[in-house]
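fyi for ur records
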Amino acid sequence: MDRTLMIEIFRRIHALGGCDASERFDRGWDAAVAACEDVLTELTGVSYDDLEEGSGADG
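which gave:
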């Protein structure tokens, strides 16, 4: 596993949250993004706390 790549994938998934939609849609969207983050953390051990280590734009 390339940890740097996994951190960048997590960063990009995390950046998908906070869409500019209705409050109801936004809550569902953020919940879906959080679920993706949970799966990635479960499978790789990478979490939000690791974003400082990765490269790329902030999410």
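The mean pLDDT is 85. thats all i got for now
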